[in-house]
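As a warm-up, study this chain.
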Amino acid sequence: MKRFLALALLVICSLAVTIPASAQRMTPEENAQRSSKAAKQQAKMLKKANKKQSKAAKKYAKKQAKETKKANRQLQERRGH
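Now compare it with the structure written out below.
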């Protein structure tokens, strides 16, 4: 039993040593770099979403104009012009 506890303690200590110090703490430079990267990625996603929304709005406007034009043509035909 003592051998098992000693082995378990040895394994736990070796695992604690293998965790790098950089994973435990982040320097201000690394924090700024990650923050900048995240902001850049967020801006990219926002630009993409805005582009998609703009495209959908243009498609809707085009469809509405087409339907209005068709309705006006049909109205003129009914009036006999």
